[in-house]
Structures
1.
Amino acid sequence: MIPRYSRPRMARIWTEENKFQTWLEVELAALEAMAQHGLVPKEAVAQIREKARFDVQRIEEIEVQTRHDVIAFLTNVAEYVGDEGRYLHYALTSSDILDTANALRLRQAADLLLEDLDLMMAVLKDRALEFKHTVCIGRSHGIHAEPMTFGLKFALWYAEMKRHRERLLRARAVVSVGKFSGAVGTFAHLPPAIEETACALLNLTPAPLATQVIQRDRYAEYFTTLALIGGSLEKIAVEIRHLQRTEVREAEEFFRAGQKGSSAMPHKRNPVLSENITGLSRLLRGNALAAMENMVLWHERDISHSSVERIIAPDSTILLDFMLGRLTGLLKNLLVYPDNMKKNLELTRGLIFSQRLMLELVRKGITREDAYLMVQGPAMRVWQAENLDFPSLIRQDAEIARHLTKEEIDAVFALSEYLKHVDFLFQRVFGD
């Protein structure tokens, strides 16, 4: 991933240094397991652990000749270890190391993403509580529907992120598996006990059954989970973009002193952070599709998945880490305009109370179809004439007056009825 979208902690996981470090951890865990089961001398393992080193530049030099990255790595480590190096990689195949080490790095990445989610959820909760009773219009199809509160938007996003956190924990567990079962997964040269011990040392679960590789449905679940999280971040970003439109302007990205919105128009304040998140989420979805394509390999293994994973593993985790950090900051500093919310709430001159009026008529014994028509007639007149307002028309409507008293009509247009269950909804989401 390009530096522009890379944050240091996540980027470090995908450095060559950390890649080879996890390879070394896996090789040492296998050796330790073999020593515990009497397959290699414990003294040799102790010496290897003490001497084992690697040099990234040297590995790259060797790979130019070998055209095989694992062999280049092993050759370099053996240069430090000496004669005991003959025990390195004993009875193992490259994918025993690669896939088991991949599990370690994907787990490291998931741990950082879980921290990111926790930070975002904390901000969402704070802002939900801040605007718990700030009334705004709810929209469906982009059209004014009925009143709600702005805090409910944040509460909704919080609940969604809570589900994503659970998904990511499951995906983390799904990829946290290792294998030391050899070329086609049959344990032809090492007993299963070696795998169980080595995986325990790495805090991984042994794959119940593998071929030469860990099966890629696990990776597909992991990267699909990242794409799902990205989809929700885009959902939030698109909402902010809509709310920032000049005609709406109920919320707005924070605009720093000295910031420029346009090279041509000095007045511009654009939702550039939200637009950026919208774009990056597309890459996560594309990478998830690539991960699903990787599930299909020839027989017990080919390497068509390998080149793909070299790209999507760092790119997806680095991107999502960046997106979560960016959106968390955006939400924390989001500018909110309750006065504009009130103005927009009144924009349709009372039409937003139409359903409540219809239901009140139904409660009086009128059929739903007849009540709908009684309300729709005045509502359409308000849409067509800017000098009319819905409450006034209803109070002058003789047919409606035959069924509802003045007090009952006044009660129809009370905002409080739309907000009476906000506390209940917050209790459902936050539990406190």
2.
Amino acid sequence: MSFLIKALNVTGLIFVGLIMLSESVLVSSAQAQQANPATQKRKAPQVKQKAASTVQSGIKFKDSFIDKSSKSMSLNPELFKRVDGQYSREEGDNFDYRIQRGCMQRSFNESNLPANIGVVDRSFNEFFKTQSKGFFDRMRGNCIPYALALGARDRFESLSIMNGPLQDSKTEVWTFTPSVAGGFLIQQDSLKEESKRFTEIQIPLNDVLYDPKKVGDQLPVELVWELNSVIKQIYPEENNALENTRSIVRLIVDFGDKERWAQIWAAEIIDPSSQEIFSSAFWVARSDIPGGFYTASGESIERTFWTNPLSYRRISRGVGSVRASSKKVAAPKNGTAPVVALQQRYRAHMGIDYSAPIGTPIFSVATGKVVHLGYSGAFGNLIILEHPGNYRTYYAHLSNYNPELAIGNEVRRGLEIGYVGSTGRSTGPHLHFELRKDGVYVDPYSPKTQLDLWNMRDSDSGLLTREILLLGTPIKN
């Protein structure tokens, strides 16, 4: 089995609008010491005293197998030959966004690649021809790997291409996206052999669904929680008997270090005999807001993460008005005894109440910084986490806190931060949870709530096609 080295370093960014701007070069080096995954995963602390970078461009992984008798799932360059291969939303959806992936056979008109794979944007096709000449001069192999995203009415969203199926220190990945200012952007990534951050792991689907202890032998505890959540969301309902097969979950994992969070970058449910991919999800790291998981059809699955801070029995109360008090008042009536009326007073209830027994663990729904830890009036024992993009999450009425926490700590998503209680103004054991944007409460369960956290932004499409191209299981013969 050949192990592929995928260390991404941004080497150039070209902006082309109505006026061609000069090329700017961004150079970053990504090197990590090689380590055994069993020990490597212990290095990523769940609580940090200082900020850690969440955007990583370095990619490399090696293989680690549960069932070594299974058919090899390494990224074999020979697998990059089938031209067809398309991810799309389920039947009945509007197909506003779809991704197709393949490896186009080389020919004399390689510069026509976008048009040949379905891009109808004439201005982009012309731009591609003028900008890609140098790229094709460095081609290797007999096909060109690509991942293309198209939107409504075949609108061009992003295109990632690689200079051949072989991935080593000479490999280049170019990603094209439209610019909001007009024209197009190119991000040029080169793969560096020395970076050893990423590991490929295969775990039986049954273990992921039903045996977290076995998964815990492979991953840090916070990634076990995250993986279980991802798989439950992408598990194909039409194949509800998959757990009775030898299906596996193929993972690409960065085990992190003292300065970088451990992170799952790709998760695929695969039939090891046919290598059929039933479903998949890819992590997209963003600098201005928290990163998120997207399916291979561009659908975000982040809303579920942001609305599940614990294992709860039921939602006991949502957003709305609740009765605060009532009292009897006398209303005079002409010539008769006064009429006694019941006057109700109401107050707004902003937040979601999750009913659960005292002591039930509560998890951070996203990576963030502790900005409040202590008693706060009606909230009782309260934790507030601050997240990129001016988001904050509130966890109230706690019985206790994780003793490792302190104000200023950074915590990773999935960390056990506290425990259900009934402190403050509370009628029984529950967690009061709030999500706020710019200080204003938003209802995460409302279908009208469409936050940038949960939607494919224009700037995210290129990141997604690049990750699918680099980290997805190669298309088979």
3.
Amino acid sequence: MVLILSQSLMAAARGAPESFADLAERISPAVVNITTSTTVAGRTGPQGIVPEGSPFEDFFREFQDRNGDQTPRKSSALGSGFVISEDGFIVTNNHVIDGADEIEIEFFEGFTLPATLVGTDPNTDIALLKVEADNALKFVSFGDSDIARVGDWVMAMGNPLGQGFSVSAGIVSARNRALSGTYDDYIQTDAAINRGNSGGPLFNMNGDVIGVNTAILSPNGGSIGIGFSMASNVVTKVVDQLKEYGETRRGWLGVRIQDVTDDVAEALALAEATGALVSDVPDGPAKDGGMKAGDVILSFDGTDVEDTRQLVRTVANTPVGKTVRVVVNRDGKTETLKITLGRREEAESAIPASADAPEAAEPQALDALGLTLAPLTEEMRTELQVPTGTDGLAVTAVDEASQAFEKGLRAGDVITEAGQSTVRTVAELQDRIDEAKSEGRKSILLLVRRAGDPRFVALGLDEG
């Protein structure tokens, strides 16, 4: 019986009604218009320049005398939001209220209330507000954005272009869209979203919020049917933390990672190109738990790791202080590490340990890779922003016809590892290449640093 009910609810959430009127009438009271005001400095300089002797000179001088003072003035902005509890918690976008001195909430029934800011998360562009009302407020609940399917009907509500309490409908055009943020998980929709809709809800046909309308893709600033709503399963975790702490508290593993590409997988003899390749392990939880650069993270806290984006979001959603099992592939073998997560917001940059520096040497060409290399000197370390004590080979030239150039290697890069072993001389690098060939490898994995930032690059090996 429960299964049948669940399936019917899911079907209702996806199907198109004969009319959206009943749904709009039911949930409109929980959707709000948001007006913010910000005190800004008055004009501090000339507002127009005209040629001396112009017949408009006196007009502009009088205009500037009236308007060129430095008296502070108010600027206003409009946005949308929605009530999530009867005691007055309201969700909107961070950019709607960012920098505001005053926030006023207009409700569907026509009354207004001042709002206080509970907390914000710029990373997901979410803000939580609170109003105090004499009576219980009408509110809406979050739904499960993960069960939304491409093609499902959705309805957007908000305050587009200041028109107030406007409804538009469309479908889910795509899921799991990433724009520019680390934690992005957007639902793309063709429901009309315009300026002023920011912070408003995207509903499924059950009237559950499955997204917060955040951005549009448009050449002219208006809706062309490509809008983005931050998925509710991201928003709910942020809102819960803002409500409890007034800030976010994301889990922190403490590694630099990159995706496992097909050529990287071949160089590491991995069965498939999945997981997250660890390029650096500064001081932090992962290092304390025994993780090393070159490890490939296959599983985190019981969840298989597909790529870096998924791992970052999974770690962030894991409670700070929790000890998790992390399965890695190291040198072709699987190992399980126990790591106690820190808090990302408190993470500090690590300083690598020092070591003895190699002696200076002349640049040498490595024909197999199209590179001209030289062992690092202290002078090179300073110039290339390489931490003191880091061993490796400085790239002094790259053959523009080589695969190395195609993969992005440039003069000034520093190769610190080859085949997951430290290299200090060209001879050591050649040894790693010979070993890879003898093992039947078609490529070799290099750990390359640029201005201190590491990344792995897999280069094909010449057979000649």
4.
Amino acid sequence: MKGLALLSVSDKSGIVELGQKLVEEFDFQIVSSGGTAKTLQSAGIPVTKVSDYTGAPEILGGRVKTLHPRIHGGILANLDLESHQEDLKANNITAFDVVVVNLYPFEKTIAQDNCTLADAIEQIDIGGPAMVRASAKNYHHVTILSNPASYDEYLQQLRENKGKTTLEFRQKRAMEAFAMTAAYDQAICRYFAQVNPESANYYGIGGNKIATLRYGENPHQKASWYQSGNEATGWASAQQLQGKELSYNNLVDLEAARRIICEFPSDTPTAVVIKHTNPCGVATGETLATAYNKAYNADSVSAFGGIVALNQPIDAPTATAMSKIFLECIVAPDCTDEAKAILGKKSNLRVLLLSDLNSGSQDNIKAIAGGFLIQENDLSIELPESWQVVTEKQPTQEDLKELLFAWKVVKHIKSNAIAITKNCTTLGIGAGQMNRVGSVKIALEQAQNQAQGAYLASDAFFPFDDSVRTCGEAGIKAIIQPGGSIRDEDSIKAANELGLVMVFTGVRHFLH
């Protein structure tokens, strides 16, 4: 008896080639529906339409076509049970050997700017998941192919096993299929949660494994990299031009670099150097090479072995400058051919292109014992027109520009966070200290004499005036902070005595 295959796919990658091999090499009969049947027929592949096979027409504009006993009986039959064999015979049903199904492009649809609720609902597949789950459940007897990447391996299985597949192969494909439908349902859940946040009481986390990483933060920790959803976005969609495979720490640092570089528009050349998720150098410049050199010189010691993020395509001068030291990774939206040749001489250097640096998740998820926490990512940045100048001395337009730069930087430093900047370049970073006084001291020590006439940003309010007085003694010109302490008046008084500018933003930017 001929093998029987059911082909009904949204992603038609490789489906013609698979259909040809099934018919010509293995003498399969193909049952197919809708656009898949048309694609196969156009390629000259003999196909029996689902409606002809079941004797029931497609109805409701194609919403109902495969939901029929002759389809699902042929998928779900346990051929080891005599009662199932009898049911198949009595109802003129043939068991399927292979089911090739993938789902409507729900995630692609909702990613479109003009997608309406009606558009999204129409892309919720019903028959597809039913066939996929039924086939995966019955993997002892049916092969489910839900990913075009598995077609070649399936054909090789047929060649090696006299037209059959191994149980191990079928079980792997079943696991893959269940993962796909789980991710699909979670994407729908997340979408409806966005449509109506007040009624959302479920949050699903799922992903497809991209890679088993060599190890986690330390060599004794196992780690893996997963892509959320079925559509590659963010780092899963990045192009790695060269270099060793990415490590766990690389990816964590790259994400920190991506988040801070997104603060700066692409028409302002900006470079960020990250070390252990904290920026050790951030700068803007007239050219990308100038911005990079300023960021590097801000803390050249820490920059060694760091991660660099750029908001413009890498050009030859910037590539030349970066190639002079050891860096772990570079990420930019693009890279010129000349720059590729320069960086290519450092074969271990990881160079990634992420065309959309803003393609990050809106949610921040942290695991805790027995569950997880979800918050919106801190995408807020307060502009000068919303600030409150609280000192007698008023800022100039140049002061406001510099304070905005410092404010953008400090929100990406681990709390307690202090950033000292001048000429839109970081001079000193105080990160992750248990008290704000310690962070101020570290940042000033790093800035040294350059603190004279510089700008200081604090991610949260100063609880006392001691740090303000320390800043004044070091020559800091202006301070930006959220305000909100019960002792704000003490800090304002100290700033006035020292002739400092101080502005309150009214918004805190803790980063734990």
